Amino acid sequence: MSAVDQNASEFIAEAQEVIETFSRTLLELEAQSRSGGADPDLVNAAFRAIHSLKGLAGLFGAQAIGGLSHTLESTLDSLRLGKLALSRAVLDVLFEAIEVFGRLLTPRDDPDEPDPDIEPILVRLRALTEQEAPDLPQDNLEWVGEAILSVLTEYEEHRLRENIRSGRGLYRVHAKFDILAIDVGIEQLKDKMKVYGEVITYLPSADGSSDDSIELDILLGSKSSLAELSAALAVGDVSVHRLAPADAPSAITPAPPRPSQPSTPAQPQRIASPTPAEPRSTSSGHNGHNGHNGHNGHNGHNVVAAPMPASSRREPAPSLLADDVPEGAGVSETSLRSLSQTVRVDLRRLDLLMNLVGELGLVQNNLAGVLEHLRQLDRSADVSRELQVQIRDMTRKLALLQQGILDVRMVPIGQVFDKLARVVRKLSRDLDKDIRLVISGAETVLDKLIVEELSDPLMHMIRNCIDHGIEAAPERARLGKPPAGRIELRAFQKGNRVVIEVEDDGGGIDWLQIRDMAVRKGQVTPEEGVSMAPSEAVNLIFAPGFSIRETATEVSGRGVGMDVVKTNIAKLSGMIDVTTEVGKGTKFSITLPVTLAIIQALVIQSAGHTFCIPLNSVLESIMVETREISTIEGHEVIILNKKTLPLLHLSRLFSLRPLSRSYRDPHRVYVVVVGLAQHRVGLVVDELLGQQDVVIKPLGSAVRNVPGIAGATELGANRTVLLLDVGRLVDEGVRQADATVSIGVSHVR
Amino acid sequence: MSVEREDLWQALLRSGETIATDEDYEHGYKRDVPQDLQQYVSFRVSGEIYGLPIHEIEEISKVFGTTHVPRTADFLVGIGNVRGRIMPVVDLAKRLRLRPMERGRAARVLIVHLNDEPYGLVVDAVIDVIRIPPDKVEERPGGITGTRAEYIRGLGRRKGVAGPGKGLGGAEMKAGEEPEEIVIILNLATLLDPKDFVRVGPGEEGRG
Fold it and tell me: A242 by DSSP, 3-state: which?
């Protein structure tokens, strides 16, 4: 049973990865098609992604996904073969398919529930391919050479024709690689060639490859001249030759190298009439002058244009290309390889490793204890010195190990941004608002857990931006704004935190409107409303149940949004801030720790119970004389930096029964000033025990929802200590204070 | 003590079932316990005999230290840490609203799992593994009403064992001489319903 689950989750993870790649490719394609011309490499990448998804689905017996990817693959094949134009309508259906995949991959609670119906999307996909353009009249390609043509896949042939049609010259790049360095060499050459044009195919060379080197012919379509290409590419064992239609096509014997062809790139198009081909000719193609073959021993006197005869093509080409692969097989091979560059690791396994490291840390502490004992014995001074050195070494390595494991958990936030790009696309279509999404910092890394938890809040915010923020086109025109709305999504690292910003150029938030709404709904009293500062009013959007709209809309609902967003961010020990200007737009910024797995904590004691407070929410810890504490309507406050700071006694909040009553000084208390987002309060505690890096462990579902408790951690030998949920406690404190004190709790800025 | 523990393992071995051992957990390996609904681990809480299906129990541990969690129901002893795994530990007597009895050295923590999360259940003593055919389990305890009924999955019967404190020794008594005893089979899902754990704290009155 668990083996099946394991397989299923493996499949889901892998399939999701492929679909994400696919989705990213589509988004890129859409952006390109908007600015004209889509990159054929991208279309091909999309095809390959779905192709491997199909294989994957077959492997795991996921029929619905297999069926959909099969049909989708045909559509994409038509696209890459140019039989189908990449129109907006086509993209719509493709994005729709992504949504369907998403639904198919969502685990269902009831195993008997049938898969979502994929028939509608299949029908739409098929409809696309049915209306595909009739085959264009084919240019004659005989001059390229039967030997080349016969090994091209349908796609490669299509790309070849496309290149010729668009007026590019055709070049054969001959390269020789040392067998040991071939992968590096090919990559380098490929990168260089991409600058000049499109690589159509790689062909193993006929010329006798020796044991320690491999020779390749690469078909390149380029607008550059032979001289330019030669200058750029022909270094070492690389030479460039031009392939062009012959003036005298019947060349049985290889033609001698001739001076550069005068043919313009457009020439091939004009030669549409069938050129009689010599049936026995293995080299009907003609070749440009090989100007740079000085280094090329094999090619020096050979006929440059001659691609290998079909017979000998089978023998050489060790390992790089399977010889004589059936059409299309080469494609699937590369795609499987390119998609599995990474190792997927279950987070729970990492947690396990983390636990082990934590336990090693304890062992190390014990060792340090042993060392102390040893030191007290004079006789073993040498031994103890040696032990000390070893322990120090171990400590260092442990820290590295811990860091290494943490690094594995880090993923780029781009994963979420890609999803959001899809949401923006869909919503802007649904609401008929033209919206440009500008993304930066997608490579910023964050703990996988945080990235996962972020997608919902960010989605909410983006929805709000589109629904409430960005005005409809006529309105924008009236205001003199560009017709297309703009949403910027930024991520960047700031110290040991990551900042994510969502900014729109919409209508902004009118704080007066918010204030009046809140008064009308009774969330604040009219008196409070009068004395309210703009920033306070704007922050009301984070209050539970607040909505700017009077009625719910389908997109962002009835405003359960922002308070949920805030709560979720606070759960990640993050803060959210909003700045807005009416008529100009709104910017939300979220500040998050890079990881949740290990945090710095302040260890405190209250009524004999030990707790940890995340250090990132601690503003300062101070000692306060009891006489400095005053009360306002029964609530204790102190004045700190000329602002009123409400005090909360942890022992009272948690109704802690004292475990030990060793109050050192009845006249003094410790106050830990904590702040999150807009508010701050002082937590009164008995002892400050110091700072420590702690590994956070999740609480099970039973204890997870205890208000004020965020998690647990181990301190020393199996001692479990609770971690405070500062955001929640501050909220309670503020509400408590608000209930009685209307003098405005000090708010940050 | 150790005799009793060995007897339990003997019982387990005899029944052909396995409960994961310390070694298994040391290596982070969870053995698949085959589901056999006919077998139950029986244990004593406040003088009554309770049972849980053997596959719901991962491990039987001696009582370990816990950390008090504020704002939780009184039946939650606290959270404990077993080899790095944090789990809530529940006092079954309090949960079932039975009169608590002084716990002796026979007290154990049953580590059970519900929805892939571990929980500890403190019981007065573990008795043995029994086999109750499904048709001998009364599915719906019609007679029993009140708050406890929801925690009960069914009632089974077993050959009687000795009274409290004698532990497994009773298994060697001659069958037939003892009256049949009722084994109350618990329903973990309701027993460990997460919403019962949180106690509304002083700062919480305002929230629904």
Answer: strand
